[in-house]
Amino acid sequence: MIEVKNLTKSFEDRKVLDNIQATFEDGQTNLIIGRSGSGKTVMMKCIIGLIIPDKGEILYDTRNILEMKKHELNHLRREMGMLFQGSALFDSMTVLENVMFPLNMFSKDSSRERRKRAYSCLERVNLADAHNLYPSEISGGMMKRAAIARAIALQPKYLLCDEPNSGLDPKTALVIDELIHGITKEYNMTTVINTHDMNSVMNIGENIIFIKEGVKEWQGTKEQVISSNNAALNDFIFASDLLRKASELEKK
């Protein structure tokens, strides 16, 4: 579980996050949504320790990341899997070598055991046949799956994803959504996803935090999104004709 308490961050005279409170549960796909400039990216960067907030606490199962010493922070990072917006695969490494990268850095297992673990992760994301290919030789969707395999290589307790469906077509995005959701359940991870993809919200949004201008406006599930009376959330959500139609069907 990850808890965010009284999270506040300003840049010069502009308050980007204002007293945010949120809880991200184990075994759930927790989504942070909001318009561009709403503060959701800053919130994600605070959660993973890339930005230090002005005030507040960020607790990883009661451990405050903001109070950790360097060796404690390094230990926590081994429990975290990161899925970046652009996949962030190393061009000079094969798919298998990319997945092995965190294992080679942090695992004390033998080379054979690390390779076996990497293959297992690739099999989990249906990429075993592509293990010898380079990122330039595979599609965008395959790159995302390879990045997911790398993110789970160390069997993390926490999975943090920044716009995982960015640049993907709707069908491929659905595959990535279902893969992240399935892995979250399988490993009982605390998964936090920063997204503006409304299809993701309706597909896998078990716990949704809506941020507007640095303030948490709303929190709920994908089922509650449709019937929400929050005007700011509705204005954001119903920009999608697909979700507008879903709302109309829900009311019938």
Could you write a compact summary of the structure shown?
The chain has 252 residues and is an alpha/beta fold. The protein has helices at 40-47, 70-77, 95-106, 111-124, 140-151, 170-187, 198-204, 222-226, 231-237, 241-251, and strands at residues 2-11, 14-24, 28-33, 55-60, 63-64, 80-83, 158-162, 190-194, 207-212, 215-220.
Which characteristics define this entry?
252 residues, alpha/beta, six-stranded mixed sheet, four-stranded antiparallel sheet, 10 strands, 24% strand, globular
Task: Describe it.
This protein is an alpha/beta fold. Helices cover 40% and strands 24% of the residues. The protein is built from 10 helices and 10 strands. The chain has helices at residues 40-47, 70-77, 95-106, 111-124, 140-151, 170-187, 198-204, 222-226, 231-237, 241-251; strands at residues 2-11, 14-24, 28-33, 55-60, 63-64, 80-83, 158-162, 190-194, 207-212, 215-220. It has a 6-stranded mixed sheet. A 4-stranded antiparallel sheet has the order 2-1-4-5, with helices on one face. A hairpin with a 2-residue loop joins β1 and β2. α4 crosses α5 (140-151), α5 packs parallel to α6 and α6 runs parallel beside α7.
